[in-house]
Structure formats: structure tokens, C-alpha cells
Specification:
By secondary structure, the protein is α/β, with parallel strands linked by helices. Helices cover 35% and strands 26% of the residues.
Length: 244
């Protein structure tokens, strides 16, 4: 599963607002055993949004959290673009959302607010505990939420609790810390099997250089084998290390 965040907000890019979504989403995903694959902050630009969504759609393992652009003003482009990219279709009025808007705003739903109910075909609603103006999602993996954190963050919670739920636990992980720079181990890194996850975290403490190496995967035997390559290199170079 490759999880993407798309944060739509010209105001963030021009400095009028601070992004509130990235850290919240990252931390919540980690609580459920997930990590972000990529995060984008983009302008309210039709072609840019279309290209970003298309790139994500073309990843067969993609899951997307999209923030912003689902209101009723002319720069709220998300619904139409999502419908074009993910449904190859124009939007369709969602009956329940239509009724929710009428119930809340009455005659003031027209002529603009009512269009918030025009969603990509087969959309399902994400509950909004603040004002009942829903987000929506497609195919159980593309989620579209308002730009307002007080509305979208409860939706993130709902998605993780009720739709994605907890990720399968990672099978095996081995980690060491060595008293050397990561440059000393690059040759080993190049030999590591792509079937395991390998991470290298350099640690700088004044003049001292250390590195933390971690190898993880579902196959215990393979994780042990690949991890041993680092140990062998360190022993050969007489570099001090510790398993952590």
C-alpha cells in the first residue's frame, strides 16, 4: 500500500496559511501501522491537480488522502477533477448529501452551496461532525476532505478506524548502531535485496559520526541474511557496533 497525501492550497504556498494536515496525517497513520509514501502541497490549479491525481491513480497500490477544494466557491475544483480522473465521467448529484444541504441551509442552499452535492459517481460520504457537510471517497481508497483541519482531521480518524483499519504487522526487523559514517557501508547497501526494507540514519554528534542501520521484512531468514552483510563488513573493518 502506497499512501499519498495531496494538500491543495494556494494559500499555503504563498504563506497566507500554515499547513495543518501533513503532521496530523503522518502521525495518525503511524498509530495504525502505516507510513506515507509521498506528500504534495499544490496550487488550486486544474491541470496540476489533474496530473497529480492521474499519477496517483496509475499506481496500482495507491491510497490517497486529498485535502481541500470541495467547497462551493469557483476555486473549489476537486469534485470535477476527481470525477474526470477516477471515473472518466462528469459529477452526479448525491441524493443524501443534497438532502443534508437543503436541511441545513434551506433556500440559501441555492445557487451555490447545492453544488457541493455534485460528486463523482458512486461516491460514498465521509461524516463531518462540525457541520454535516460531508467529504467523500471512491473505491475504498481515494479520500477527499475539506481544507479546514477541524473538519478534515475527524475524517482522517474515521477513515483509519472504519475503512483502512490497522495495517498488518511488519514481520521482522533488525537494527544496529555503528561508530562510523554511513559512507563506509554504502557498498553493502547496494547489495541488499529489494525484497527487504533497508534504512540508514546518519547520526552526527560534534566530530563523531555514527550510523543506525535497520533491515525489515516478512521473511525472517532473508532479513537475517541481509542484516548479516552489515555485521560482516563491520567486523572485517574492525568497526565497533551494537545491536539495538
Amino acid at each position: 500500500m502506497n499512501i499519498y497525501a495531496v494538500i491543495i492550497g494556494t494559500e499555503i504556498l504563498n504563506g497566507r496559511r500554515e499547513d495543518k494536515h501533513f503532521h496530523y496525517l503522518r502521525d495518525k497513520l503511524q498509530e495504525y501501522g502505516y507510513t506515507l509514501f509521498a506528500s504534495f502541497v499544490i496550487k488550486d490549479d486544474k491541470e496540476l491537480m489533474k496530473n497529480t491525481y492521474t499519477m496517483i491513480k496509475n499506481d496500482p497500490k495507491s491510497v490517497m488522502f486529498s485535502f481541500g477544494g470541495i467547497g462551493s466557491t469557483p476555486d473549489d475544483l476537486t469534485r470535477d477533477i476527481a470525477s474526470e480522473v477516477f471515473r472518466s465521467s462528469s459529477t452526479k448529484r448525491h441524493e443524501k448529501f443534497f438532502n443534508d444541504i437543503i436541511e441545513k441551509f434551506g433556500d440559501e442552499a441555492y445557487p451555490h452551496r447545492i453544488h457541493m452535492a455534485d460528486l463523482p459517481p458512486s461516491s460514498k460520504l465521509l461524516p463531518n461532525p462540525i457541520n454535516n457537510m460531508s467529504g467523500f471517497y471512491l473505491d475504498e481508497k481515494y479520500f477527499f476532505m475539506p481544507g479546514f483541519p477541524q473538519m478534515s482531521h475527524p475524517m482522517v480518524d474515521y477513515i483509519l478506524e472504519h475503512i483502512l483499519k490497522e495495517a498488518p504487522k511488519k514481520g521482522y526487523r533488525k537494527t544496529l548502531k555503528a561508530k562510523t559514517s554511513e559512507n563506509e557501508l554504502i557498498d553493502v547497501m547496494k547489495e541488499i535485496s529489494p525484497e527487504v526494507e533497508m534504512s540508514s540514519l546518519p547520526i552526527i554528534n560534534g566530530d563523531k559520526r555514527e550510523v543506525e542501520i535497520s533491515v525489515a521484512g516478512d521473511n525472517e531468514e532473508l532479513v537475517t541474511k541481509e542484516f548479516q552483510k552489515f555485521i560482516d563488513k563491520l567486523k572485517n573493518k574492525k568497526i565497533i557496533y551494537s545491536i539495538i
